[in-house]
Fold each of these.
Amino acid sequence: MVLNRQLALPFSTSQDLFPMRRFPYYLNMLLLIALWPIPRLLAQERLEMRLETTFVPEGTAQLIKYTVMLPPEVPGRQEDINMSASHAPHRVFTRDGQPYAEFRFSRVKEPVSLQLHLSMEVYPYDLRRITSPVEPLNYPGTWLQPEPFLEVEAPEIQTLARQLAGADVWASVRKSYQAVRDSLTYDPQQQGALGALTALRDGRGDCTEYADLLTALLRAQGIPARTVNGWVFGVTEGNPNHHWTEVWLVEYGWVPLDPTLGMPLPERPDRLIPHPNARYVRLSSQRVDPLCGSSTNHWKAWGKVEASYRYSHRLRPLLQARQK
């Protein structure tokens, strides 16, 4: 007897709804291998972003130096990053793993506009699709210590952190996340960073305070966490600058948590989706970047200058983007 080995299906049917079953086993396997990347490509998108910065001098500015953070490559999250600009950068460089572009404009008498175009592949974040190696926990002590805006050792932070300790790491994360959501009121008029302790006392803040308070509470419980500076698309219009928290979990590496958007956390971390419509682009994983501070860019002018920003973006499914 010659057996025609076919794909085993999890159910049987009187009708042949799957023509693939009529093919020999090896043809089925070839089809599966050929089609295997398609779900990954469908889940991935091409992000095209344009940042236009306009500098308007009063009189003559002898020099304007403008530094912009660039997104680093993060396997499985943001890849194939390309940049072009209307003006040639003075230099593109990396410091401590963080890429930057620096532009310089000399003897500026009229308004000058710089258009920066970034293109990259981004994934909607879903822990169930992680196939690449977990990001390592480099310098583990760093992500537990106090630092500016993260007053981990403050008595009020310590007291609340003890109250939020759960039976395991994820239980502690969920309770801390919920506490931040419940204790803060979003203030869109917030100017400047308050820090975790002031946010807890005042009960208000913008995305920076939400992220800082969650990061501080997790660190106070011995859970590695950090406040991330970057962009979020798909849930807001206009300026995409955003802060959120990342917590390090042994099974998954650095995992984003966004208490500002406030999606409930699932009982299991592998079901975590920070927001179904949000696309996150990580820029800096340092709370205070050595060059750009708490922002995504920094400029300095020798002369009186005002700056304004305009953002635009579009997201396209990766297969569609590659066909064009």
Amino acid sequence: MMQIDFLPQKFRERYDVRYQRLWRITVAALFIGVVGGTATLQHWLRCDAEERLEAIANPHVTALRINQELSRVYRELDRQKRQAALLTYLRHPWPMTRLLDQTLTPLEPSIALESLEVVYQPIGSAPRLQDVQNRRKAPGETEKKAGAQADLEELRRRYDGRRFLIRLEGATRDLDAFHRYLGKLALMPLFEHVEIGRLEHLAGDEAGVEFSVQITVRPGLGQVVVDPARQEQARQDQEGQPWQR
């Protein structure tokens, strides 16, 4: 059965207009709600961030101040270390009085010393004093070093390549006492090595002997003495050992 619509066209148009207006209001309300909610959320987040920033502002300033103070302390510690290293190095070689005391204290009355000589012996290719004084800064070496560090390096260039020796010459009629004397010298804390250089009978005296002894003094405080002969021997020993897993 066919339905006949007697509603005029203008009423249909009004209905469509009201329907579209309702949708527009709904969409606008949703948009305003989203924008308002987003703004509210951002405001809350901003307030929370400001509160957190205010809470850590003072600790941050304190941490920066502590960090600056720590950096200053580290710089001062480094300077003091360089100064201490220089002062320690300046205390070598060992005082002559200590060397003489440890050399002469164990000496027995039956041993007569004729000479005692304390000398420096260069090791390997130690730089000469003139070469050190005429040394020029290498190309590209632009770093400026502190006074204590520069002085320490200068002293090392001068003295680390030399060894301290004590040479004794004398005579004795008691070989047992002589060997006891050498044994006591070898136990002295400042002596690294004791070596007999010469041992000969005195002319016209079968019981008497002449001797010469060389004592190697231990490196002084902070001194590094590298012996090329020992390095080469250590290298040969290492090369001669079988490979081990």
Amino acid sequence: MIEELPSAPLLGKFLPELSDSDREQLRATVSELFSRQAILRDLPGDRELYDWGRTHFTWVREVCSLIGFDVVLNEDDQMLYALPCERTTLRRLRAEWTLVLLSLWYDFDVQLRAEGAPVIFTVETFNESLKTKLGDRQPTISALREILAFFASRKLVRMEYADEFHRSRIEVLPTIRFVLPFGEIEKVATMLSELMHGPTEEAEAEHG
């Protein structure tokens, strides 16, 4: 696992044509991708990083490749997204969290095809969808709050919190298409079914 990013002097050694300000911008851009995986131009604080990263995408891609990441530039959605060269996102998540992520992708794809972007629904609506898909493996509201907060930290969703959590709004961001690179919704449904018929976390713990 990579412990830290290349230092500014190291960047200068390998990319001597960069000015001091460009080196700092490159470091800031790669640091954001390394820590949070994505830069979306319409998110607070990301506009300058996206504009610089888009203009100097070759540099961003080369430095990220040194630390084991592929970088995607999606100009339609105005985003940069970093993917580990070996996509391990689903393997790192607990099974119940993966079920929520797959359900989120499924609902995102359905609404995107029907209504276009942005894809926004309330926590209450999504929770009802989870109940239909997951049955007794549906997470509790407190667990769902934790899961959605984590997904927001990875820029997979943007949360607009209300005083009552179930009225909060979830905007599913286009980054979800890269962390779960499925071309067909049927593949998501198949993976959901496989996970649903797998052992629960409690059963895994008992036998682990």
